[in-house]
Amino acid sequence: NRVLVLNGPNLRRLGTREPDVYGADTFDDLVALCRDTGRHLNLHVEVRQTDDEAEMIRWVHEAADERTPVVINPAAFTHYSYALRDALAQRTAPLVEVHISNPAAREEFRHTSVVAGVATGTIAGFGLTSYVLALQAVAELLAEQDA
Ligand code: DQA
């Protein structure tokens, strides 16, 4: 089973970007963590990052066409991109929204997610472990489907 882990703007800068909020681990560390987690769960995990909304939307369409489950950290797109929400609404497989920080505990503008309503569910606030939990959720959902 293939899973796409999609990351939005500024997430390539993990490690140097506001480490007090997002931690000291780098994007490469995140890629390794997701791949390792996938190996344990028997999932083939492909991790991508883009700062470009159009590219992100193309990846979401690709996942919908191929019935590929998605773990997505939409980063700032979370809070305002109706275009990304409309793309995610076309999903044909489980889709988990993840955040490293807990947006509900931060500035007011982060309290709204325009994508949460079209996700299977959301995991936020556990640092990079949010991705581990999201991949576990995807594995559970796939196992239920196959049962
Ligand atoms: C984030 C939270 C967003 O509010 C922010 O814009 C990000 C990262 C997180 O993972 O905590 O870029 O999605």
Per the principal axes of the C-alpha atoms, what is the gross shape?
A: globular
Radius of gyration: 14 Å
- Following the backbone from N to C, one meets helices and strands in this order, namely EHHEHEHEEH
Q: What is the CATH class name?
A: Alpha Beta
Let me know the average pLDDT: 97
Q: Structural class of the helices, strands and pairings?
A: alpha/beta
The side-by-side strand order for the widest beta sheet comes to 2-1-3-4-5
Low-confidence stretches: none
CATH topology: Rossmann fold
Q: How many distinct helices?
A: 5
Your description of this structure?
The chain has a 5-stranded parallel β-sheet with strand order 2-1-3-4-5, sandwiched between helices. The protein is built from 5 helices and 5 strands; from the N terminus they run E-H-H-E-H-E-H-E-E-H. The longest helix has 18 residues, at 129-146. It starts with a strand and ends with a helix. It is of the alpha/beta class. The protein has helices at residues 19-22, 27-41, 53-66, 82-88, 129-146, and strands at 2-7, 44-49, 70-73, 95-99, 121-124. The chain is globular, with a radius of gyration of 14 Å. Helix 2 (27-41) packs parallel to helix 5 (129-146) and helix 3 (53-66) runs parallel beside helix 4 (82-88). The protein has one domain (2-146): Dehydroquinase, class II (Rossmann fold). Helix 4 links the parallel strand 3 (70-73) and strand 4. The structure holds 1,3,4-trihydroxy-5-OXO-cyclohexanecarboxylic acid. Residues 10, 73, 75-76, 78, 99-101, 103, 110 line the site of 1,3,4-trihydroxy-5-OXO-cyclohexanecarboxylic acid. Belongs to the type-II 3-dehydroquinase family. The record marks 17 as: Transition state stabilizer. It catalyses: 3-dehydroquinate = 3-dehydroshikimate + H2O. Substrate binds at residues 73, 79, 86, 100-101, 110. It comes from Actinomadura namibiensis.
